[in-house]
Amino acid sequence: PAVLALLRNIINAADQAHIPCDMCGEMAGDPIYAALLIGMGLTEFSVSPPAIPEIKKIIRNIRYDDCKKLADTVKEMSDISAIYELLRSYLNKHLLRQ
Questions:
Q1: pTM for this predicted structure
Q2: Mind giving me the DSSP string for 17-75?
Q3: Label partner for 16 (CA 20 to 30 A): which of 6, 30, 42, 96?
């Protein structure tokens, strides 16, 4: 939760300063976190080539409004296991509806 709060602050600060903010690394390429990061306002992801198809599939099957609600819910949570379970459930629900 503390790392997520830090990321949210960084994304918000960059947005307010009109500075592009992108993320590269393991979290950016992890499907579990894609909707959450989008809901937090992240618009650019740098992922390894093997992760591109799955991340694109997720992005095509979610709505920003839903991601924003998800991020707002996670913001109020303090248990990392509960957060992870919520993110997994969200991902499964939205990928299965296609």
A1: 0.90
A2: TT---EEESTTTT-HHHHHHHHHTT--EEE--GGGHHHHHHHHHT--HHHHHHHHHHHH
A3: 30
